[in-house]
Amino acid sequence: MRTRDDAPVTTTAPRGSGAVSAGRGSGGPAPRRATIAARTLRTDRWWVQPLVTVVVLLLFIAYSTFRAFQNAYYSAEPYISPFYSPCITTRCEGDSFPEFFTGPAWISPAIYILVLPLGIRLTCYYYRKAYYRSFWLSPPACAVAEPHRRYTGETRFPLVGQNVHRYFLYAALLFNVILFYEAVRGFRDETGEWGHMGLGTLILLVNAVMLFLYSVSCHSCRHIVGGRLNSFSKHPLRYRAWTLVSRLNARHMQYAWISLFTVAFADFYVFLLATGTITDLRFF
């Protein structure tokens, strides 16, 4: 008679429990995991990444909030700051976009439109991981215990609102088109004559490209393009589009950070031009 250890293993044989600790030798169950009082056994500087994330995001929030409420120095022909684009009130500096209404003088034109770009950043899958770990320490790093006693996920207010991310993506794609429009307008000089290009043109164009890559590399965009398909072979065009978006999605984190810097730098460059601190470097 064959023992259990000698029995042949078939492809349908169930796997064992996979316990990694040895039993007591009496046929009883393996002991439970040892209680570890320390928050983590990691000896590396695991806290550096969440700390850097907090510092960078706070600096961006502080700068963008100041610029949005400053309500000045956001236009220098033919450029306009991406924080104020599209500028849709009659109180806007310049005339780069149709003006739909007259807003109160004390309300900055940026307030009307920044809620949409801010919305996609706040609900973005990558940024959610970034600020959950850095601001809420949930958890701060791998193999590091979080300080919270309860975990409810995104099932309660306000985090249940993260589910609107897809709709913010639709708005962001519209903003991407507008930013490309503003970049194309940069191929003019300060008098409005076409056929010219300055350093500001290049900066606005790079910013538009990076924000577009950030949008289309989004996890929701990947699902919109290739989700709910049972057979890719019946949808070859969507499969090709899904493959391309999947490749971009692998670099979504990089696009998220690069586009954060490009949009701030583009605004800062326009601010320097508008205040007369520098003059635009003209290529032709």
TrEMBL record:
Keywords on record: Membrane, Transmembrane, Transmembrane helix
Segments traversing the membrane: 46-66, 106-127, 167-184, 196-214, 255-278
Biased composition (Low complexity): 13-32
Region (Disordered): 1-32
UniProt name for this protein: Uncharacterized protein
Native organism: Geodermatophilus saharensis
